[in-house]
Backbone:
């Protein structure tokens, strides 16, 4: 269990560092949309190569079923094609820590979807989580002043759109992942999503000025920051359970905040730190409540108290 925890935290931490390195690349003049598009296509290809080594004969199975293809195309366009660009726009107009904190509101959109789908009232803990997330978003965006918007509107709007797309990513690909595998589904999703947005990102406009730092940064956001982070997080989650993995994923914005201060020498308003803490507390409350619910259900069925990952 300890090894699974450390592996999961390493994956989440790499995602947080990825946001900070991406912000550095933007500051050095790398076009945001070009960088996002290039990262999506290349990291998707890396995951597909992993899938090829893991299951040489199954990488194209998803293309043999019409319904699976249609779902994959929808996921590629909306869950991946919109999620990545909006997240990086949020980073560009704010910073890595704030963008990561805003994106962590994704489980709230999932909760709202589940409540509507199940036609039920929210539980008290769910209402508490929603209140914390809303309060945290308010603190980040206004610094506690109703009359002012402290964060650039594009950072807030694009961050929330990214969170909504993340919610789609959480809910839509589950059947495909279960049937075809994580690397296959996510690899194709990232690659096709990158192809879809390529005409809008001008992928052919390759940056002319490169140096060792820029090359190292691009390599980091493609390999450790995307492909490796995803592989480590998924593998670790399969050991500690998806629910615990959701809690450990809160290490991502914490890493992004700390790395922004240490590496980029950025400062944060106290209300921004408080807002990020409120969002993380709300998501943690939501996740822990879900874990308790799963535990109770498992005990009723005689399965055991631990929710095992797949």
Residues:
């Amino acid at each position: 269990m300890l090894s699974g925890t450390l592996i999961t935290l390493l994956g989440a931490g790499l995602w947080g560092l990825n946001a900070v390195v991406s912000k550095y690349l933007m500051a050095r003049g790398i076009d945001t949309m070009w960088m996002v598009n290039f990262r999506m296509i290349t990291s998707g290809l890396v995951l597909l190569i992993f899938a090829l080594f893991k299951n040489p004969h199954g990488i194209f199975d998803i293309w043999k079923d019409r319904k699976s293809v249609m779902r994959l195309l929808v996921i590629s366009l909306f869950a991946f094609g919109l999620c990545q660009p909006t997240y990086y726009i949020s980073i560009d107009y704010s910073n890595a820590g704030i963008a990561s904190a805003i994106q962590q509101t994704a489980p709230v959109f999932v909760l709202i979807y589940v409540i509507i789908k199940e036609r039920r009232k929210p539980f008290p803990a769910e209402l508490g989580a929603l209140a914390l997330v809303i309060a945290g978003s308010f603190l980040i965006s206004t610094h506690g002043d109703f009359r002012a918007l402290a964060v650039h509107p594009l950072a807030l709007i694009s961050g929330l759109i990214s969170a909504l797309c993340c919610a789609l990513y959480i809910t839509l690909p589950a059947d495909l992942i279960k049937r075809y595998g994580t690397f296959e589904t996510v690899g194709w999703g990232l690659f096709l999503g990158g192809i879809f947005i390529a005409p809008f990102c001008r992928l052919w406009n390759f940056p002319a000025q490169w140096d060792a730092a820029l090359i190292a940064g691009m390599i980091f956001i493609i390999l450790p920051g995307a492909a490796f982070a995803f592989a480590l997080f998924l593998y670790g989650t399969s050991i500690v359970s998806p629910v615990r993995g959701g809690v450990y994923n809160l290490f991502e914005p914490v890493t992004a905040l700390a790395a922004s201060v240490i590496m980029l020498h950025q400062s944060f308003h106290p209300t921004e730190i408080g807002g990020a803490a409120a969002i993380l507390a709300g998501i943690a409350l939501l996740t822990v409540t879900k874990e308790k619910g799963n535990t109770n259900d498992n005990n009723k069925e005689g399965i055991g108290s631990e929710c095992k990952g797949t």
